[in-house]
C-alpha cells in the first residue's frame, strides 16, 4: 500500500517533470521504477519461506575463539543466511551458506544513499544447552518497519525467525554456553539496485550474520559518564530516529569521539531548546527519581518519532509496570528537571538500555560545563549500579537464559 501512495505521488512528479524539460528528468526513471513495482506486486513473491530454505553450509569450519578472547562484533560464525529480492520476482529462496564476502556493484544504491537497515538480537544457551531467542517477533516487526521507511521490501517476520533458527542450529557450536555469553545476531537489509538515480531500489539483499559475544561487563558493572551533546542532534520530529537504519549511526560517531576526548565515555543526546533527554549513545535512556510530588517515578522519553523503540526499553517498562511498586512514565524529561532533581537530592538512578548491554548504569553527566552526579548504590559505595538497575538487569538475564519461565523467551 505504501508503494501505491508513492506511485501516485510520483505520477504528479512525473507530470511536473514533463512540464519543465531537462532539470527534473531523473524523476522519469523514478516513475518507471515505481510503475514497475506497482505492476509487479501481484506476481512477485511477497515473502520468502523457511520451508524453501536451501542449505550449503561451510565444510571448512573455523577454529572457535575462547570465551575470554571474544571482542564484541569481531568474530563471525561459519555460516550466514542470505535471501535476495527483486522487483519483478519478489523474494527468492533463503540460503544458508559459508560466511564470506558478498558481491555488489559499486553503483549499488546502498553505497550511495544508505539503503540499509538492520537489527540486533541475541541467542542464549540455557543450562540444559537449549538455545533461546528473546522476543524475536519485536525485532522482525522493527526490521519490517525500518525497511518500509526506506522503500525496501517487507517479508513475513515469522519466516525470517524460522530461517534464523535454522542458522542457529547450523552454527550451534558457536553459541557460547557460559552465563552472560551469547550469540549476537545481525539481520541486515540493503538496497542493491545498480543505477545511481535517487529512487526506490529494484533489488535488495537480506542477510543475517552472527558473532559470539561476551558479557558487556566482564568484571561487574562499570558505570559510565556522559557528555550532554548540545551542538548536534541525533533525531528530530518527522525524522528517522525511530528506525534502525544505517544512515542514523555514522553521523553519531563524531559527537561520541568529542565526548571521549573530554574524558567522558558516551554522549547524551538532547533535543530542543529545553534540552529534552532522548537517548544515550545508541541506547534508550531511563531516569529513576523522586518527582516534585514526592512519588518515586521511573521515566523514559515517549516514542514520539525521535526514540528508537528498543526491545529492552519495552521489556523494562512491562516489568516495572507489573511490579507496580513505583510510578512508570513515558514522558518528556528535560535537563533542567535532572539538574533540579540532583540539587534537591531526588535523583536516584539513571541507566541506558539495549540488547548488547541490557542495562548500562550512568554515574555522571557533563552538562554546560557542570557535572551532574547520579547516585549508584548508596548502601554499597563499591558497587557500580543502583539497586533498581541491578534488579532489572538480573530479571531480564534470568528470562533470557531461561531461568525464569517466561513467554518472552522462545526456544529454538
Ligand atoms: C538498537 C538501539 C537501541 C536499543 O534497542 P534494543 O532493541 O533494546 O536493543 C536503542 N537506541 C538506538 C539508537 C538503537 O539503535
TrEMBL record:
Record EC number: 2.6.1.42
N6-(pyridoxal phosphate)lysine modification, residue list: 244
Reaction(s) catalysed (UniProt annotation): L-isoleucine + 2-oxoglutarate = (S)-3-methyl-2-oxopentanoate + L-glutamate; L-valine + 2-oxoglutarate = 3-methyl-2-oxobutanoate + L-glutamate; L-leucine + 2-oxoglutarate = 4-methyl-2-oxopentanoate + L-glutamate
UniProt keyword list: Amino-acid biosynthesis, Aminotransferase, Branched-chain amino acid biosynthesis, Pyridoxal phosphate, Transferase
InterPro entries found in the cross-reference section: Aminotrans_IV (IPR001544), Aminotrans_IV_CS (IPR018300), Aminotransferase-like (IPR036038), B_amino_transII (IPR005786), BCAT-like_C (IPR043132), BCAT-like_N (IPR043131), BCAT_family (IPR033939)
GO biological process: L-leucine biosynthetic process; L-valine biosynthetic process
SUPFAM superfamilies hit by this protein: D-aminoacid aminotransferase-like PLP-dependent enzymes (SSF56752)
Domain of life: Eukaryota
A single cellular component GO annotation: mitochondrion
Co-factor requirement: pyridoxal 5'-phosphate
Any matching Pfam family: Aminotran_4
GO molecular function, one term: L-isoleucine-2-oxoglutarate transaminase activity
PANTHER family for the chain: BRANCHED-CHAIN-AMINO-ACID AMINOTRANSFERASE, SUBGROUP IIII AMINOTRANSFERASE
UniProt family annotation: Belongs to the class-IV pyridoxal-phosphate-dependent aminotransferase family.
Protein name as it appears in the record: Branched-chain-amino-acid aminotransferase
Amino acid at each position: 500500500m505504501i508503494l501505491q501512495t508513492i506511485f501516485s505521488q510520483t505520477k504528479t512528479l512525473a507530470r511536473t517533470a514533463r512540464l519543465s524539460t531537462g532539470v527534473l528528468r531523473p524523476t522519469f526513471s523514478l516513475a518507471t521504477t515505481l510503475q514497475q513495482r506497482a505492476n509487479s506486486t501481484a506476481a512477485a513473491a511477497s515473502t520468502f519461506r523457511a520451508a524453501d530454505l536451501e542449505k550449503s553450509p561451510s565444510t571448512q569450519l573455523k577454529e572457535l575463539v575462547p570465551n575470554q578472547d571474544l571482542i564484541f562484533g569481531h568474530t563471525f560464525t561459519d555460516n550466514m543466511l542470505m535471501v535476495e529480492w527483486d522487483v519483478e520476482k519478489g523474494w527468492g529462496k533463503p540460503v544458508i551458506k559459508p560466511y564470506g564476502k558478498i558481491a555488489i556493484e559499486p553503483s549499488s544504491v546502498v553505497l550511495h544513499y544508505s539503503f540499509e537497515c538492520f537489527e540486533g538480537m541475541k541467542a542464549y544457551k540455557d543450562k540444559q544447552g537449549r538455545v533461546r531467542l528473546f522476543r524475536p517477533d519485536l525485532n522482525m516487526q522493527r526490521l519490517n518497519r525500518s525497511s518500509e521507511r526506506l522503500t525496501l521490501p517487507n517479508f513475513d517476520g515469522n519466516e525470517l525467525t524460522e530461517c534464523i533458527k535454522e542458522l542457529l542450529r547450523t552454527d550451534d557450536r558457536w553459541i557460547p554456553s557460559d552465563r552472560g555469553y551469547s550469540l549476537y545476531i545481525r539481520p541486515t537489509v540493503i538496497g542493491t539496485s545498480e543505477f545511481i538515480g535517487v529512487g526506490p531500489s529494484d533489488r535488495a539483499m537480506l542477510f543475517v550474520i552472527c558473532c559470539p559475544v561476551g558479557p558487556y561487563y566482564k568484571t561487574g558493572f562499570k558505570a559510565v559518564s556522559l557528555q550532554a551533546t548540545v551542538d548536534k542532534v541525533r533525531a528530530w520530529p518527522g525524522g528517522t530516529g525511530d528506525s534502525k537504519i544505517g544512515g542514523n549511526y555514522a553521523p553519531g560517531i563524531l559527537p561520541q569521539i568529542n565526548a571521549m576526548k573530554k574524558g567522558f565515555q558516551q554522549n547524551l543526546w538532547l533535543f530542543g531548546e529545553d534540552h529534552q533527554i532522548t537517548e544515550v549513545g545508541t541506547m534508550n535512556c531511563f531516569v529513576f527519581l523522586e518527582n516534585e510530588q514526592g512519588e518515586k517515578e521511573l521515566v523514559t522519553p515517549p516514542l514520539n518519532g525521535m526514540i528508537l523503540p528498543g526491545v529492552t526499553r519495552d521489556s523494562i517498562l512491562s516489568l516495572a509496570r507489573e511490579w507496580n511498586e513505583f510510578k512508570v512514565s513515558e514522558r518528556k524529561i528535560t535537563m533542567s528537571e535532572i539538574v533540579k532533581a540532583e540539587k534537591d537530592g531526588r535523583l536516584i538512578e539513571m541507566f541506558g538500555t539495549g540488547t548488547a548491554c541490557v542495562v548500562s548504569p550512568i554515574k555522571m553527566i557533563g552538562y554546560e560545563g557542570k557535572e551532574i552526579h547520579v547516585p549508584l548504590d548508596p548502601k554499597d559505595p563499591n558497587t557500580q549500579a543502583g539497586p533498581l538497575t541491578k534488579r532489572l538487569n538480573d530479571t531480564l538475564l534470568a528470562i533470557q537464559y531461561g531461568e525464569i519461565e517466561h513467554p518472552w523467551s522462545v526456544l529454538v
